[in-house]
Automatic annotation (TrEMBL):
SUPFAM superfamilies: alpha/beta-Hydrolases (SSF53474)
Protein name in UniProt: Alpha/beta hydrolase
Listed Gly residues bias regions: 351-369
MF terms (GO), sorted A to Z: hydrolase activity
Keywords from the UniProt entry: Hydrolase
One Gene Ontology cellular component annotation held by this UniProt entry: membrane
Gene3D superfamilies, sorted: alpha/beta hydrolase (3.40.50.1820)
Domain (AB hydrolase-1): residue spans on this chain: 80-332
Organism of derivation: Actinomadura chibensis
Region (Disordered): 349-392
Compositionally biased intervals (Basic residues): 371-383
Length: 392
């Protein structure tokens, strides 16, 4: 019995040793691969990500949570654009749009509760309905009642717009004159596959909420571990958030930094709200104003089918689908977003969008790789993109 145990232990040790060697080799290869990516020529290496700031306006949510809000641009501008960011990010995710629209527009950027520089929320208030009310508070604090507004929302930011439409439909048309929905969804988030085979996704989905709750309860330990896995985090962020093989390593690193800056317990608190999100019924409210819907053809988190579904419910909306794009169009294809916003603003208030039109037109032929349609699906083709369309 003792001999068998020793042999068993020896075998276990050998297996463990081989496993450790394999893991070590994998880590080494991953480190080399990440190093190669980061050594590529990077036109965005000197971009001042996270450094563009505006005038801070104190805003308090209806439950007392302080919201970090910044106003950028001339006070006498004829129109204001309010930007809402996505889950685990902050207002700096709109970096390129802030940079390229400065001077011609009045812009409001805000950090959603528990994200960025905003205050922490009670866990039970980590809901999409609450972020919609937070958006209302931001509007009331930063925009006069008779001043026209365009709302732009990425991912969870788009869901906040839908929640506002659900709770405060009277604001639309009266004050909100246009809406841009980027990489977002009106519901059925529980069906997302994260790019996994369907059978595997069905196994993983039920485990995610429980796993995140467990990680949230061990937040301090998890945060230390997150700091140690920089190379792995870079690889996962690049794989999950982007589709363009030429995406800037600096952009990937910037996105990963924003995600890492969001505490794991905040990620755990908001996850159930995303899965439960269902605002298809309020899309009719958005139909009263010009609406632009932008999707990534290879988005693993809110697949393009979600955007097509919204476009079918909004026959007058403009749908732009970028084939070789993932979940963060504002960073991956900023010119497409900025150009789309200019078109939307121009349709709402002629002359307010500025003269420059970057990164997209309504018609497919005008912009390589960008499928632009109005109220219908576009042809399934995958042309290449010009460099000028990847950057604003």
């Amino acid at each position: 019995m003792g001999t068998i145990s020793r042999r068993g232990l020896g075998l276990a040790g050998a297996v463990a040793g081989a496993g450790a060697a394999g893991v070590g080799a994998a880590v080494g290869l991953r480190h080399i691969a990440v190093g190669r990516v980061r050594l590529r020529p990077d036109p965005d290496a000197g971009e001042p990500f996270g450094e563009l700031r505006g005038e801070v306006v104190p805003v308090e949510a209806d439950d007392g949570v302080p919201l970090h809000v910044e106003v950028d641009g001339p006070e006498d501008a004829p129109l204001t654009v309010v930007f809402g960011h996505g889950y685990t990010l902050n207002q700096d995710s709109w970096h390129y749009q802030r940079r390229d629209l400065r001077g011609s527009l009045r812009m409001v950027f805000w950090d959603q509760r528990s994200h960025g520089r905003s205050g922490r929320s009670d866990p039970e208030r980590a809901t999409i309905e609450q972020t919609g009310e937070d958006l209302r508070a931001v509007l009331e604090a930063t925009v006069p009642p008779d001043h026209p507004v365009v709302l732009a929302g990425h991912s969870m930011g788009g869901m906040s717009i839908m929640a506002l439409a659900d709770r405060r439909p009277e604001l639309f048309e009266r004050q909100v004159k246009g809406v841009a929905l980027v990489n977002t969804s009106c519901g059925d988030m529980a069906e997302m596959t994260l790019g996994l085979p369907l059978a595997l996704a069905k196994l993983v989905r039920p485990l995610a909420p429980r796993t995140l709750r467990g990680l949230g309860r061990r937040a301090e330990l998890v945060e230390r571990a997150r700091g140690l896995g920089a190379d792995l985090a870079f690889v996962v962020t690049r794989k999950m958030a982007f589709a363009d093989p030429h995406v800037s390593p600096t952009v990937v690193g910037f996105l990963e930094e924003m995600i890492r800056g969001t505490p794991i317990d905040v990620i755990a608190e908001f996850y159930p709200a995303l899965i439960a999100h269902d605002k298809e019924a309020c899309l009719g409210v958005l139909g009263s104003v010009p609406t632009l819907i932008l999707a990534g053809g290879q988005d693993r988190l809110t697949p393009a089918v979600h955007s097509r579904r919204m476009a079918q419910a909004l026959p007058d909306a403009e749908l732009v689908e970028v084939d070789e794009a993932g979940h963060v169009l504002p960073l991956e294809y900023p010119g497409v977003i900025t150009g789309g916003l200019r078109r939307l603003i121009e349709s709402v208030h002629p002359g307010a969008g500025g003269a420059k039109n970057t990164g997209g037109t309504k018609n497919t032929g005008g912009t390589k790789g960008v499928k632009g349609v109005k109220g219908r699906r576009s042809p399934r083709k995958r042309p290449r993109y010009d460099e000028e369309e990847r950057t604003a």
